[in-house]
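Dissemination and training. As part of the outreach component of the grant, students in the summer workshop were shown how a complex can be specified as a set of sequence lines and then modelled as a single object. The example used during the hands-on session is reproduced here so that future cohorts can follow it. Participants entered these lines:
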Amino acid sequence: MILSRFVKTAAFALPLLAITLISAGCNGGGPAPSGIVIGEYGAMTGEEATFGTSTDKGVQMAITEANAKGGVNGEKVAVKLYDDQGIPDQAKTVVTKLIQQDGVCAVIGEVASSNSLQAAPECQKSKVPMITPASTNAKVTQQGDYIFRTCFIDPFQGGVMASFAMHNLKAKTAAVLTDSSQDYSKGLAAAFKATFTKMGGKIVADEAYGKGALDYHSQLSTIKAANPDVLFVPGYYNNVGAIGRTARSVGVKVPLLGGDGWDSDKLFEGAAGSLEGCYFSNHYSIQNTDPKVQAFVAQYKKDNAGESPDAMAALGYDATRILLAALAKAGKPADGSYTSDAYRAKLRDAIAATKDFDGVTGKITLGADRNAIKPAVVLEIKGNERKYVSTVKPEEIPT
Amino acid sequence: MQDQLHHFLQQLVFGLGVGSIYALIALGYTMVYGVLRLINFAHGDVYMVGAYISLLLARYIYAHHAGSPSGEVFAICLVASMLGCGILGVVIERLAYRPLRKAPRLASLITAIGVSLLIENFCNLPGVFGSSPQTSPNLLPGNHVAYTVQGIVIERNYLVLFVATLILLVTLWYVVTRTRLGRAMRAVSFDNDAASLMGVNTNAVITFTFFVGSALAGAAGCLFSGMVQNSIFPYFGIMPGVKAFVAAVLGGIGNIPGAAVGGFLMGLAEVLVVSYGPRFHIPPTYSDAMAFAILIVVLLVKPTGLFGKGVVEKV
Amino acid sequence: MKRTLANFLTAAITVAILVALNAGMNYVEANSRFHAGYAIRVLMLALINVIAAVSLNLVNGFTGQFSLGHAVFFGIGAYAGAAFTVFAQKPLFGHILSSSDVVSWSHGGIVLLAAMLVGGLAAALAGFIVGLPSLKLRGDYLAIVTLGFNFIVVVVINSLDVIGGAAGFTGTSRGDTPVNIPALTSFFWVALVAITVIVLSINLRRSVHGLAFESIREDEIAAEAMGIPTTRYKVTAFVLAAFLAGVAGAMYVHYNGSVATPSLDFTASVNIVVMVVLGGLGSVSGSVVGAIILTVLPEALRNISPDADKYRLVVYSVLLIILMLLRPQGIFGRDEIGAVWFRKQINGTVTLPRRSLTWLTNVLQRRQRRGGSA
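and obtained this result:
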């Protein structure tokens, strides 16, 4: 009985499995494509799509620029982009596909640390360099010596604002309002609390909101009762606007502080003037008179219907340019293959040697732990503008 | 002590504001469940569409008619959201649910999930609403207008939100209990086949139920985007949708006043967890989970919800 | 006696075939010339999904209850299994494995089996706690409670930093050395478990217990009137399904090397339900096919064109709606793939030889009288 049933099931299931294997295996089993192919993965659909599409705009801009100048090593550069829907195990699947089937020499992505954390071991295993433009969790680059990042890590940015609150704003007490559904927000909050306490300040309220929060009245009324000197809100711009408005309505009058998640024109839309005189740390100032920054902002606006670049776009742009520079430095491979282990190792060394790279998001040096060492700027919100206040160098932050 | 009481009352005021949104969404769930025994998973997404209709319309009015916020703009946006969502609800029922009315219930449930995914993913496309979060302009003049009563802050926008919700609830209550259509609705909900034998046009009643339920979700969407003014994006309807569904179950699914009460209770419970949770070592973020914990407890103690009648199954 | 021998032989042959396939697959994967890593990954994920879908079919298909949070049991199994290998491995097994180690067959197998057991039991316990109260009730309550439970677990895991929080669980560190979740799951184990679960399900369906499950689906009140302990059967099916999903989760995490909450959130649960309904509720072959289609199809759609990627999810949801409208009973309906199914496709309808409810209760009562458990 069992036998016949089993045979029936097997007779049915095995061909399907075979078809699966063949159909999935065939379309990429051929020789690696010629020329330079860079892999990119990110959320193009799903809830996180806004981060993925912004990053992609920056990446595409850098590639278009490079190709307009004749490409790298005399060859055009192509980007192979896959959507991971913002789901970690899909990130791992598409990175495997990029490496195994699309013959990419290196990989760029992701924004969310949870996705980068699943993809990075795959890159490390196959010895393919990966640059994450915006994953801030310290663990990401610890996955191996082929994994790099071009953004700040959480401890630095949280420290910057703690130090700014202490020294520039003379704050003695602080409150924190964390978006606990975002690893980024939790990381910044933890770093802020640690640095601020170490410098002798006191955290008087530590509140949080989740994914399903409709408004923030309850949290902010508790914060109001604690009466802090500053309020640190390391969230993304989409919620910070409403948080700012609510803070003012319940009577929190002190400045709000934040991180690079605030950096978007859309912040002003939601805040309706309530964030006047508040500060956030960022990679660069959009008003920086540096021609390179101005050219980037102008070109981005031209490509994207007048929309200003947010932090993700700028970071995607810089990550790609660092990779392109490393490709140029590693030179044309002797055997013509950009995907050989030897060439990828050479490329990895070239990325690791990045020093004082003149990026839009600051002068970037990749340190021994493969994290970007670069200064942060603190911006103040005045009207619907972000005004430059000060620059904080990494060495100024106590660890 | 005075302070404690004051803080508590203030939290209640906040809770009623959020609860209004849940109450309005919960009504649609409960009405549809009442007539079709179907968990309409797309309902949270109808709410999302309502929020976008209001946001886009408000932006259009301000941009093209050099208007400033006024009661008129608010009224136009509210009506447009309600109409738009009502029509969307009817279309969904007609195309996706009606063909499956005789099919296994699970099939219509999967279809409902499919419709929900379709709305979310379609709206997320770059050409439609796009994936980046947006915030609506204020529909009423002046920002952060608030009144203080006995030291308790009541924001004007939240007051409008609450009053508008009450008006809609009373209207609905009147329609359901005092009109012929309402009686037909109750008849269909009591026993579909018997109602149709008694000459009730059940299809028309179901269409009407979807229209009203979805219009209420549209109103909730408009009130959220224009009054609460938090950011909206194509997937933001999921969580409030699910919580409102829980609110409907809490009040006794199929029971209209129960859904409204359940919604307000849900809003209050969340706010109380955020403000009092930490004293009992419950992190504020657990407010998202607390709603469901309450639900599970209620189901264990009184499975039919607070106001639900026990259903005697016919053998 | 003869049958036992035949069964034993079948099992032995199956294991031998799997060992051979496993060896072949290791060779192909290790040799980058074949570019097979991606295909193998999709295959592995498909098989893991097969286990999850077939297990959910026990509840939603056989017993006719409606669980909307199955991914949560998968997730609990994954987190519990991974926590077990990461935190308890050294004390229990003497040394630490990490994902880069070449794990010996026997050692890795023992650790994996232990992790699967831990994951499965953790999920079963959670299933029992959730299932017992809600399965006493009739109607949609199980759906509502499982849905709520799903949200609760995701929120709680996201706030637990010891298992990675929102960034996902990849392991821990002992001093400066990271202790990663070891990659122990090979094709052999996944395929073996998948086949076992499928055979178990099909046999269960034809057993007295399986018929008791189905009688509850057909008419709970009648079943109860006939003396079938409905609550006990519903809870049994639910806990068994949770256990199997937990096992699948433990295998997943030891294949993937990490787990994050998107693998167990509400969307993931819906995905498993769709697999089961797509294949046909109550049909084991249906769940298998549904799981494979829903894992492979989205990947296959990637290659159509670079721009099509952004329409993938829209196309998926439209297909889902159309399929449900045209074929609400799923691909196979309730039938298993086999002679009856094919005849039905050709002739239109076939009257199925179904044993009646009366027959079932007679059997059950006879058993109870004999003192056996029903």
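Chain B has eleven helices and two strands. Students were then asked to discuss how this feature might be tested experimentally.
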